[in-house]
Amino acid sequence: MAATMPPTPANNNGPKVQIVEKVGEDKSYNYSFTYEKATLYEFKFNRAPVPDPIDPCFRCNRRVQPKDQLLVTDVLFHKQCFRCRICGLPLTQQTFHRNTDNGSSDKEVYCRTHIGKNIGQIQRGEVPAMGAEGPSVDGKNTLYR
Ligand SMILES: [Zn+2]
Ligand SMILES: [Zn+2]
């Protein structure tokens, strides 16, 4: 996943999804997911190059203060980072999924639509950018960062 992928417009008629990944020279990692339907939905995160020595968040590598901690089967997240890796859908302890195919030890979390899927499949339109459970979009939402 180190490559920088160019933004890929979906087909001309349907809603557009644009996913951009960028790895900084310092190994920081930027991800943005933009989904345009009637309105725009945007999900972004930036992963620090190295995990904080104290209570790093699995998603963003930044320290999690005790009041923001969410511990899910031994993996620590910021509450606001506990979202689908691909589309940014907010997850709960009841709704998250992990990819356990082929003995995978992937600790990332996904929504029901994107479990076992990869970013390339979304960009090529093989998998919906948003599942039926996707967030209702209302105006331009930058979820965090
Ligand atoms: Zn985080
Ligand atoms: Zn998702």
Radius of gyration: 15 Å
What helical percentage do the residues reach? Answer: under 10%
Low-confidence stretches: 138-145
Order of helices and strands: EEEEEHE
What is the distance, rounded to the nearest whole angstrom, between the alpha carbons of the first and last residues? Answer: 21 Å
Q: What is the mean predicted local confidence, pLDDT?
A: 85
What ligands can be seen in this structure? zinc ion
Structural class: mainly beta
What does the main sheet amount to? 4 strands, mixed
- Our count of helices gives 1
GO molecular function: metal ion binding
Pfam family, one: LIM
Keywords: LIM domain, Metal-binding, Zinc
Protein name: LIM zinc-binding domain-containing protein
Write a concise synopsis of the structure shown.
GO terms for molecular function: metal ion binding. By secondary structure, the protein is mainly beta.
Structure notes:
By secondary structure, the protein is mainly beta. It has one helix spanning 119-123; strands spanning 16-23, 29-36, 40-47, 69-72, 75-78, 141-142. It has a four-stranded mixed sheet. Mean pLDDT is 85; it is low at 138-145. Residues 84, 86-87, 89, 110-111, 113-114 line the site of one zinc ion. One zinc ion (ZN) binds next to loops. Residues 55-121 form the LIM zinc-binding domain. Keywords: LIM domain, Metal-binding, Zinc. This is LIM zinc-binding domain-containing protein. It holds the Pfam family LIM.
